[in-house]
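Q: How would the structure tokens look for this protein?
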Amino acid sequence: MKTKIDINSRFDSFQKYSLYQGLDKKSKDDIKDIGLEHQLTFQELKQLTDMAVDFQMWEEPGIGTQWKQNTQSLNYSNKQLKENVFNSIKSHWKSLKKNETTYTRKNKRNYSSAGRKLKEINGDNEVFGMCPVASEKTVCCNLKTIDVAQGCGLGCSYCSIQTFYENGSIAVEKNLADKLAAIDLDPNKNYHIGSGQSSDSLSLGNKNGILDAQLEFATNNPNIILEFKTKSKNINYFLNVNMPKNIFVSWSINPQIFIDNEEARTASLNQRLESARRLSDKGILVGFHFHPIVHYEGWEKDYREIVNTLMETFSINEIALISFGTLTFIKPAIKALRGVGTKSKILQMPFAEAAGKISYPIDTKKKMFLEVWNSFAPWHDKVFFYFCMEDRELWNHVFGRCYESNDEFEIDLFDSVKRKLELKTPIKVS
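A: Here is the predicted structure in token form.
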């Protein structure tokens, strides 16, 4: 009797676990029944719950169904049953993570949330800083950032922004122009500045005059290159204003099947490329970020097709830069993604340590990056390519080179983009 009381007490304590609370009712009931019947330890309950959350995200059979199926198929004594069923489910979970993810949906996934509300902020918060993913453990471009907004409503399943801005809203600067004017830049130094790190650069349009303010900032500071990074098609503002000579617009791009499954409210691949083409026709330099490159069934063919389309659609002088990157998480981000409850296979991948974060194993990265890099062979010496958040081993393996310092990287990137900007002549709007 005492044992039963202890087990019940243990479960009462365990069920406060946040990921358990986020499961559907059936999964919670199944875990409770299994835990009490087989006297699972607290750690076993936690492991079972983590797997249940992943199975739910990946749209696999529920944990109760899998436990029942394994109980029926495995002929063990009661003493061995728990251990062997548990290990069998864990082995299946690991195999799903190890093998290439399979995406089968042809239609864009419905996003469960109604979106994020906009709110205005005008406090003492800093809008200018360093790229939040910069690390001494990786080769970094020293990107500076302007946080014109905090939070994003595009709903990408892998987005780390939701780890930092969890209140369900997008905070938009009310007086951005004043804050930008107050930034103390060294007139003798060049700066590459991006505005799409804490939100999408274009999805909000010119809300509160945030695009007006940034163009004014670029005009007043000729020693900067300002990059607008987006996954949207919202380019009308740029089509109807006169542009400073030191800005360019870049798109994160991925195969459409990945967009359909993991980038809920974003523009389609064709819409992103068409938007880039329209801006380029106006004389505005564009760039592309293959980030994240993802390992799924059929990825090689899909990425090769994107590369071929880019090289057919744009000339080398229209491209500011192209970057490569892949899924990289901090541990709190993984917990946050699991806690959201969105149907997603983004965490169905083998986890490996990468410069203090979690990513693919390095051999998988080498394979993916080499495939995309080799597809760009005609452009190798004509466009600036670089890695985002990767170590020297990958640079040397894929590109055959690596910068001695981040400062050297920063200078090379700036000078390359600057040369391309000087070749472009934006069309004046009358």
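Residues 78-98 form the longest helix (21 residues).

The first strand starts at residue 117 and ends at 121.

Upvote if useful.
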